[in-house]
Input
Amino acid sequence: MGAGFVSLRGVNKFFDDVHAVANLDLDVHAGEFFSMLGPSGSGKTTVLRLIAGFESASTGSISIESQDVTELAPFDRPVNTVFQDYALFPHMSIQENVEYGLRTRKVPRPERAKQALEAIDSVKLSHLAQRLPHQLSGGQRQRIALARALVLRPKVLLLDEPLGALDKQLREEMQVELKRIQREAGITFIFVTHDQEEAMRMSDRIAVFNAGAIEQIGTPQQVYEKPESTFVARFLGVSNVFSDQVAQEIFGSPATVNIRPERIKLVAPSTKPKADERGVVGTIIESSYIGANTIFLIQTESGQRVIATRLNEELPDQVNRFVTGDRVGAVWKSDHSAVIPT
Amino acid sequence: MLRLSRTSKIILIILVTFILTFMYVPLLVLILNSFNQSNISSWPIESFSFTWWEFAATYQPIRTALLNSIIVATGSTIIAAILGTLVAFALKGYDFFGKGTVNLLVVLPIALPGVVTGVAFSNTYNNFLSPAGFNIGYFGMIVAHATFCIVMVFNNVFARLKRMNPSLQEASADLGAGLWQTFRLVTFPQFRTAFVAGALLAFALSFDEVVVTIFTAPPGVDTLPLWILKEMSRPNNATVVNVVATVVILISLIPVFISQRLTRAQDEGK
Output
């Protein structure tokens, strides 16, 4: 079969009339942190559930470590899942929850207690082992869900938006923690999220999903700097996409071109762009100070809007700043823009 | 919570007191009269004794009727518990043609007049099964009771299953449990209290049922409520009837009480 550790070939999934996954090919490498990123309804969670075995593919095949698992039930697949709502068993103690997978594998009682307590200890919650899930906070439950899956040493760990319910600070701590666990255990992580920053922070590679298909697969840098579609450019961060007539005016050719707001410099309108630069002239119609950055919205005479963000390296009143209503030149280096293939 | 004015509170309290008095004073009089020394009910009671309780405890027809009631209630509860749970699972877990109809058909017997159910079963047994050589007899009474007992188990279990987090079963499968293991270790513990509560209600419902029983009890077989009904025509035995009625009240009330406690404990546990 495929070259990947986890491989999907020609996978389709229909829910009644909805084509949730469309003719998907995907290869995830051994030991990598792989993210599936996309808006809700883009099929990323369905793909995860297909790999876990909770859904069966309408057509196509799925293999894990060269073994065809397309027809296998979830309990026969070498993968474990961390659920979005954690899915801890409410009537079992934390320790019983973590022991559950060992119990179904008929590990003797003393051995499974030992392994479970080690796993609970590794997420630093030993003191809560005898509690019930509802007595734990969201972040603690999240760690237990992780321990419950990892105690089985799966070859692949599937994570379905596991940090979605946590507050921002805790989420960032867990991102670092997850990345550390993944690196140390050497397990392949397949991580579903709709948060592009989260995906870029942790992943080795990202697959960007749209309407049941993958728009692009690449390293965080590749998908951010060289988006292969307008959708990818817009979904990962803020972007300026110039096409058709506008592109013709600026670049002299009708290609679709993407330029990131942070690459755009603001200069006096009379300044001529250098040889290796491109630019437009317009009026600032809005500027928003958001702490680390200021976001400028500029409108050209032809009506094209350009977003530029500038890092606030100095105190705002200590530099000569542009304000709303000013006419400015927005310029960028030619090699900072990327042509989007159409 | 809706806030009520002082006047409306007072009116409500008076109203509720009035209604509860009307409901429960007759029961209280009945229970007190079961300790009446006299063999007919009277008020005020002149002397109390356990005479009729002792009589009832040793009187063979009453003991037989009690045993019948327990057998019928237990039998129909077991049938209802199994079938009600299976139906609840089918309706919760699967989509199929006629699902809404099946749901209605399961719940309908509780709304059907007992006399209709009774006549229907009686006709089926006597004019259809009997001539064909099937003498269903005692078991027919159990089956007839089970038809409306199913509703109790079904409603309770179905409501609980609907609130159950579907990812729990997926998590169990994900952690390597087969179908039976998942049911035993995860699914059943989730609806166990609802199941027991429903079964207790079914038992109580069957235990004090009269109308369907009249039509389906084989000749010469009495349940406790049937025995009471027959004795009512003999005023000289009124106090014994009161004793039996008190027993019926207790045996019906206790399961309902436990069932309510279970349901409440479960709701608070979430």
Summary: The interface with chain B takes residues 52-54, 73-75, 79-81, 83-85, 87-91, 100-101, 103-105, 134, 148-149, 152 of chain A (CB under 8 Å).
